[in-house]
Amino acid sequence: MKNEKSRILIVDLSKRHGGVDTRVIDIAVSLRDRCEVKVVVLQDSQVAKLLQRSGVETYSIKRRRHDPRIVLDIMQAARAFQPDVIDAHNPQSQLWGALAAKLSRVRTAVATVHSIYGVAHRGFLRQHAHEGVLHLCRMLGLRFIVVSKSIQVYLMSLGISPSRITLSYNGVPTQPYHSCERSIRRSLNIPDAQFLVGMVGRIQKVKGYDILVSAISRLRERGCYVQVVIAGEGTEEDELRRLIRESDLGSHIHFIGFRKDVASVMAEIDVLCMPSRSEGLPYTALEAASAGLPLVATRVGGIPEVFIDRETALLVAPNDVEAIADALEELSKDGMLRLRLGQSARDFIRSRLTVEQMVSETLAAYSVGR
């Protein structure tokens, strides 16, 4: 980067808060002392509110994110801000951001890819449309940041040169999570001694909530009774609630909605479960590890790149209900294993996957080609 402060325009047109937004917020906040940073967001979106609360300057767009006039909005922001770099996150942001960067002649344009679009997004047409965005970004000369090696391999399979791809794992703060109130347990009448499983994130098929429901049903058949809290919301919540009712698990699985205070949720559960069918490198898993919370997760995306089975997590194959049930039952009965897994994961995450490292790698990607 040049000696004077560079100007970074980040584009994040997310409607709901997720891992993409966590990285955007951490990058934007961390870069403020070194660069001038502005983030293009949808007006009144959750990420817009969180960025504004963090003191990050935003440019709000008052349109639906599929409206092609967003290209003009981003171009207007670019004319006013004169960015050295445009960094677009998620498919809609990358579609409009790439076009705006090209038309505005911004010197460096970057697409940060958080998942495998051909798997993570539901529906044949949507998957191929989102992959089409990646091809467009390639043709327009964008560079790419990926959050896992699995995504790097995926982009290469689409014909993107490895020389244009920078691997930058997500990083998390190192502050511990503490909770003395136990408010979630109290509100649900769950005793402190009751083994409590948590799932945190968007309620979508790709996250495997249905797999967890089936696993809890298996545990009940074995006489192993656990409680579950689901912290999140999404397009498939009604279907998930129906599945829980049909499985007669309403007294075992509880919805607590979208939570800004994920730290409080982490502090009250005994294990985080992530039975995902596809992932990039989920922030929720990293945050749990940083807090010393044991993890049960599937071997998908960046998870097996970071976590080692029976050393820092219990890892299972995707869509394996019995394996999820076995892992949860083992952890419910072995407090020493929970402690060992949590401590080992915390030590690794805090030494290797920091926000500082993520920011350094991101800046390096911004600098290439300048």
TrEMBL record:
Listed A to Z, the keywords are: Transferase
- Pfam families given for it? Glyco_transf_4, Glycos_transf_1
Signal peptide positions (record): none
GO MF terms, alphabetically ordered: glycosyltransferase activity
Q: Which residues form the Glycosyltransferase subfamily 4-like N-terminal domain?
A: 18-175
Using the record's annotation, list all stretches that form the Glycosyl transferase family domain. 183-347
InterPro entries the record matches: Glyco_trans_1, Glyco_trans_4-like_N, Glycosyltransferase_grp1
- The identity of this protein, by name, is Glycosyltransferase involved in cell wall bisynthesis
Organism equals Microvirga guangxiensis
